């Protein structure tokens, strides 16, 4: 599974003065993805996170530490390579979608 992250929180704050302008942020998406993976009990599933170029490499560190699922952050491959290598691609507001 590939998650195409977007800086939703900071964008909403900057342009609408409300981090939850759209009713969610990228952090809720990450929490929900990890929850679904944990509830499903499928610990062989891998979650890859492709960060937006404006996002810090350690953005989701607090969420992914101590998780039984495999989580990697991808920045070295092309977007096309990452999407092609994934069975499922998830995102919100990404031009890649």
Give a structural overview:
- With 97 residues, the protein is of the alpha/beta class.
- Helix content is 35%, strand content 16%.
- It is built from four helices and four strands; from the N terminus they run E-H-H-E-H-E-H-E.
- A four-stranded parallel sheet has the order 3-2-1-4.
- The longest helix has 15 residues, at 26-40.
- It is globular.
Number of strands: 4
Give the biggest beta sheet.
Answer: 4 strands, parallel
Report the average pLDDT across residues: 86
Oligomer type: single chain
Describe the strand arrangement of the main beta sheet, using strand numbers: 3-2-1-4
Outline type: globular
Sequence stretches where pLDDT stays below 50 over 5 or more residues: none
Q: Strand share of the residues?
A: 15-25%
Rg over CA atoms, rounded to whole Å, is 13 Å
Ends distance = 14 Å
Class inferred from helices and paired strands: alpha/beta
Number of helices: 4
State the order of secondary-structure elements, H for helix, E for strand.
Answer: EHHEHEHE
Question: What percent of residues adopt helix (DSSP H or I)?
Answer: 25-40%
